Amino acid sequence: MATDLSRVRTIVVTLMENRSFDHMLGYLSLPPLSHSDVDGQSLDPAWLDSYTNYDEGQGFQPFLSTNPYTLPKDFDPPHERPYVAEHLGALQNSTFPMNGFVSAIPKNVSADPAVRRLVLGYFGAEQAPTNHFFAQKFLICDRWFCSLPAGTQPNRLMAMSGFSRIELNQTPLPEQELVYDWLTAHGVSWRVYHQGIPFFTLMPRWIEPILFDQEHFRSFHRFEPDLVNTPPDDLPKVIFVEPTYGDAPHVGPSTDDHAPAGISDGQEFLMQVYNAVSTSPSFWKGAVLIITYDEHGGFFDHVSPELVPTKPPQDGLYPAFESLGPRVPAYVISPFVKPGKVSHYVFDHSSMLKLLGEKFGDGSYSPVVDRRAVRSVSEVLQFDSPPLDAPSAPAVDGYLARRLVPPSVSVPPSHTPLQQAFRDAVANMRAYGAGPDHKTFGPLMQQLEPHGL
């Protein structure tokens, strides 16, 4: 456990969507970097053979993907609990084989082998420059697993509550206590900066605060100016930064990395988050920025999830999970980490809540979170050497210039429960007063009207 969390003034959390560790960071172990301390991809024939995915009698192996800008239209590999079970395969000698990622894709998503194999692709430094900058200059975790072998809503509830009443995405998102409630109860100031529609519009009781509570919910365009122009002691102690969700109706590009979008817009968003956190030296010297992904989105990872069980709460009507979910990318960006460091501690999303409990809860977040057999993020922070100066971010203009121009407004279909949940949330937002003249959401609502939303 960290010895001096008093030096941490502000904790910032950004939770992205649907990419695995091997997909985004596995390249670090390959030539020319050959980072031997990273458990990532391998070119060894025996390794490749062991993780070959067989589909319709054809074998597929991991490969370098050179297109970070887009995926085929509508290619969103299903990744809820039954599909994740297929990704992992049957448990054998306490290990999952991790070879069912391609065969789990339903034919109605794509029957084309060249498309189906894309879940085995991985990006390198050229395709993911923000990832590479974070990995070179800060700390990555190569044993950070999503909390459950399930989809978006259950994993985001684990990240924001430490438990989930549900195992599958649904609408509306059922009521349960969130970290916002915990922070308020402990007298800790907090705020959400959101690019598009915040995630917890899906939970109806949060719609009114999201629309009208400017102290707790603000547009992302205010994020950097607030950090630069406000004394750090006057800023919230915990800040959540949300991208534009691809499954939600939105204006401009989605930035959450959710397939079928590419990752370039997410790379730009994460660089914007970093620049905001690092621009003010007074804010930076007390900041811990944690970036991770809610779950793997159906993309390959070779590491068998740890056998950390999760029982449902008393009113959660689903069978217990026997393990964590697949690995996801995770970065700890702070003056209190060593550049280029790799942590092999076992983390999941509740590791962030453990840090909050240590910092603001007299060492405890909740009995359920405290008992969870994962480490706290505090264990990668170090205070025995001079704080790290914020390195300058690399220029990514050329990389971003190769993107396709997105439509001005995007209205995803309602093919999945999550897409439908966001559509329902828009209707509920209107019912609470988010019309065309709403200060934050008015422009979006106005552009959605011709689409029947």
Tell me briefly what this model is.
It is built from 16 helices and 14 strands.
Could you list some keywords that capture this structure?
eight-stranded mixed sheet, 453 residues, 14 strands, two-stranded antiparallel ribbon, Alkaline Phosphatase, subunit A, globular, 28% helix, 11% strand, alpha/beta
Describe this protein's structure.
- This protein has a domain at about 5-25 and about 130-400: Alkaline Phosphatase, subunit A, CATH 3.40.720.
- The protein is built from 16 helices and 14 strands.
- The chain is globular and about 60 Å long.
- With about 450 residues, the protein is an alpha/beta fold.
- It starts with 9 loop residues before the first strand and ends in a 5-residue tail after the last helix.
- The mean pLDDT is about 95.
